[in-house]
Structures are given as C-alpha cells and as structure tokens.
Amino acid sequence: MWAWAASGVLIELAAILLPRAFGWSDLIDVGLARTLFSITLHAIVYFWLMPAYIAFYTLVPHAAGGRLYSDTMGRLTFIMFLVFSVPVGMHHLFADPEHGSGFKFLQSFLTFLVALPTLLTVFSICASLEIAGRLRGGRGLFGRIAALPWGEPMVLAVGLSLVMLGFGGFGGLINMSYAMNAMIHNTSWVTAHFHLIFGGAVVIMLSIGVEV
Hints:
The chain is mainly α. The protein has one domain. Helix content is 78%, strand content 0%. The relative contact order is 0.13. The mean pLDDT is 84.
C-alpha cells in the first residue's frame, strides 16, 4: 500500500525536482508536478487509515463481546481501498487550469468510489456492535446501545472514531463534487475534513490501541 501510494511523489522527485536541483534542467513543469504529488497526497491518508480499519474489523467485535457482522464485507472493503485509493488525490486539482473538465469529472467519479468502502465499514461495524448489544441482553434501539461495554477502552474508542469518520466522510463527499468543491476550495473546510479523518478517526483508534 505504501509503495502504491508513494508512486506519484517518487516520480515527481526523480523526474522533476532532483534534475532541477542538480542543474540538469532549467525548468519545472508545475502542472505535472502538482498532478504527480496529488496522486500520493490523498492515498497516504488511506495508508494511515489501514491500522484503524484493521482494529475495526478484528479487535472491536471481540472487545464488545460479539462477532463480526460479515467477514466477506471486511475483505471486500480492504480490496476496494487498495484499488480505489490511489487515483482519488487528483480531486484536489479541480481548480487547476491544466486539466480539462472530462478529466475532472473522472476524478469526481473515482473519489465517489472510494467512499463505498467507508460506508460499508460504518454499516458493518455498527451491525457488529448491535450483535454484541443483543448478546448482552439489550433490547430496543437504545437498550442495545446501553448494553455495550462502554467502559472497555476499545469499544469507547470505536464509538468516538466512527462519529469522527462519519463527519469527515460527509465532508469528503462535498470535496469530491465538481460543483460544490469550488465553494470550499482553499478554505478551512478541507483542513477540517483531514483533521476529522486523521486527527479524529485514526488517532483515536491508534492511541487507544497502543494504550490497550
């Protein structure tokens, strides 16, 4: 995953930046450099997300006292992440004049595809927690929630992490829309989206996992 994600910035470094640094080239193709960097830019976030998703699918159902809702759904999610994660970084180029509208529409479509494994994960983990709540004797919508072992650090962490992931994922849907992206381009919306996903969902899961 790391090699796949880093391919864009490595090509940029070897083919554009180092030749300019050593004086072998007089110019830098800024548009090409930004495109190559964007290939890596967004994919690295999914590299960071992988440990959190592994904890979602392996540690959380056991800690909650239940079982994973669907092993097949978990496997499908990781395959989709690997296939769809790399091209989506170029949705950060919607405002760049170097790319045509057809290319930008394609990036919008690819970015939507990477939202699918996130939606599958939220559904699967919520279903797994519901199974645990039922096994613990919880009845009704709120009874099943109250029956979960919230004193268990991993269960509390995944609850907080899923809330952050939900808000961050919603922000990502705005980012991926060709029309709405123009409203939030170069604003704190993009920074907030990143912080909710990485500073929220990922860091909460990793810090609790290390503590456990």
